[in-house]
Amino acid sequence: MWFGESEANVREIFDKARGSAPCVLFFDELDSIATQRGSSQGDAGGAGDRVLNQLLTEMDGMTAKKTVFIIGATNRPDIIDPALLRPGRLDQLIYIPLPDEASRLQIFKACLRKSPVARDVDISALARYTQGFSGADITEICQRACKYAIRENIEKDIERERKRSENPEAMEEDEIDEVPEIKAAHFEESMKFARRSVSDADIRKYQMFAQTLQQSRGFGSEFRFSDHPDNTSAAGTGPSDPFASSATTNADDDDLYS
């Protein structure tokens, strides 16, 4: 609300982290406060840039306190300010892909751990069928199936009350009230509306970004210490002939890119 209040809130969060050390400071949806500086227009006099500057300053001040770990999560890594990703800040970038079959099975079990599921429901088959689904997509499938089971149970209760009102004498005996369960038919109906929130194009974009990031940071470089310190050409770093090794590897170019 007031000028400088956002920066003060950032300082307060980091002060609490220092006072609670050891601790983990987690920023979800990091792109909301860490967009590239200068890209926001009309945001109350550049408030977003000031918040990011304060965030960078606080991260630099964490070097003396090794017991505070800062983690950020985002699905828009392309708009994060590069200064936030430099070494000493959020320098360890990890690409988390969509869950595989084993992970999807555990997500189904976690979503249904408190729900009565019928024995005829094969959760493993659901995990195999939901290739490319995210955790949120799987959660939606389970919630929709649960709603179908609740709706069916409510309709049975309404029908039972209707029959009891029409013929009270015939309904004097106590009926067995079955425990409602989520049956296979409910999951089959739910799968008709199942959808993927992450498309193949988005997956390829994230994979290309992760690959480009690794290449820009020099991951996989062929650096080796030489066995002969006086002979720099033995390590492949001699300045006299920088292309000496290229002639010996041309024959294997087809294998390198096959």
Automatic annotation (TrEMBL):
The organism's place on the tree of life at top rank: Eukaryota
Stretches for region Disordered: 220-258
Gene Ontology CC annotations of this record: cytosol; nucleus; VCP-NPL4-UFD1 AAA ATPase complex
Domain Spastin/Vps4 C-terminal: 172-211
AAA ATPase AAA+ lid domain sequence ranges: 120-159
Protein's GO biological process: autophagosome maturation; mitotic spindle disassembly; retrograde protein transport, ER to cytosol
Matching InterPro entries: AAA_ATPase_domain, AAA_lid_3, ATPase_AAA_core, ATPase_AAA_CS, P-loop_NTPase, Spast_Vps4_C
Pfam families linked to this entry: AAA, AAA_lid_3, Vps4_C
Family annotation (PROSITE patterns): AAA (PS00674)
Keyword ATP-binding: yes
TM helices/strands, residue ranges: none
Domain ATPase AAA-type core span(s) in chain numbering: 2-98
Keyword annotations: ATP-binding, Nucleotide-binding
SUPFAM superfamilies (UniProt xref): P-loop containing nucleoside triphosphate hydrolases
Statement: the UniProt record of this protein carries the keyword Nucleotide-binding: yes
GO terms assigned for molecular function: ATP binding; ATP hydrolysis activity; polyubiquitin modification-dependent protein binding
Family: Belongs to the AAA ATPase family.
Stated name of the protein: Uncharacterized protein
Upper lineage: Eukaryota, Viridiplantae, Streptophyta, Embryophyta, Tracheophyta
